[in-house]
Specification:
Layout lengths: L1 E4 L6 H11 L3 E4 L11 H6 L7 E4 L2 E4 L1 H12 L7 H17 L1 H13 L7 H22 L12 H9 L12 H11 L2 H10 L1
Parallel strand pairs: 1-2
Antiparallel strand pairs: 1-3, 3-4
Helix pairs in contact: 1-3, 1-7, 1-9, 3-7, 4-7, 5-6, 6-8, 7-8
Bound molecules: glutathione.
């Protein structure tokens, strides 16, 4: 059976959401980031980075949340873009999010609200925000013209970017109304709601 390592309070929320979209059976190993379970020789053999998520699909081991979701969608023949252009857009948006928004959003939310006040660093929050603004402007411009990122329906491209923007749900997105509407639409899916409930 598919084993999914990683707590829903980590980037594993992305892969848990995908498994629930696909309605596939899986065993959840609810490991927290940096926990002792992720520092054992057994875990480091699965993922030498020591990070979550990682999956073990009957002996096929894969890390990186975006890659895991693309693999699962392709393997199970659902939410995978229908043609080469949609597939390329899925790669484009998944890689773009990882580059332009992933760590930036986590750092911004941590250092502006999530961490205890004494641990917050305003310079980190400000530097992150300076990167978030142009990226959100880009995403908003695209989503003002199209409902979905890779074709005419919800695909793994939307799942990857929306799930990575989980913390965007707690940010003021009013200056990016198309992003806000799309993000809420994605997370309102039954599997999105279930993934969120695992975390909150
Ligand atoms: N690019 C990776 C990032 C994975 C990652 O950084 N995971 C964090 C938790 S959200 C982690 O396990 N950090 C602890 C560590 O790296 O030791 C992905 O998207 O899967």
């Amino acid at each position: 059976m598919l084993k999914m390592y990683g707590s829903a309070r980590s980037r594993a929320i992305r892969t848990l959401w995908m498994a629930m979209e696909l309605n596939i059976p899986y065993e959840h190993l609810d490991y927290n980031p940096r926990s002792p379970e992720t520092r054992t020789p057994e875990f480091l053999a699965l993922n030498p980075n020591g990070s979550v998520p990682v999956i073990d699909d009957d002996g096929f081991v894969l890390s990186e949340s975006m890659a895991i979701n693309m693999y699962l969608a392709k393997k199970h023949g659902a939410l995978y873009p229908a043609d080469a252009k949609g597939e390329a857009l899925m790669w484009q948006w998944s890689l773009w999010e990882t580059d332009r928004l992933d760590r930036q959003v986590v750092n911004y939310v941590n250092h502006s609200s999530a961490l205890p006040e004494a641990q917050r660093n305003k310079a980190v929050a400000d530097a992150s925000w300076a990167e978030i603004v142009p990226a959100m402007n880009t995403l908003n411009g695209v989503l003002a013209k199209t409902q979905w990122l890779a074709g005419s329906s919800f695909t793994v491209a939307d799942l990857n970017v929306a799930s990575a923007l989980y913390r965007g749900l707690s940010m003021d997105l009013s200056q990016w109304p198309a992003v806000k509407e799309w993000l809420e639409r994605c997370w309102a899916r039954p599997a999105g709601k279930k993934a969120r409930a695992m975390r909150e």
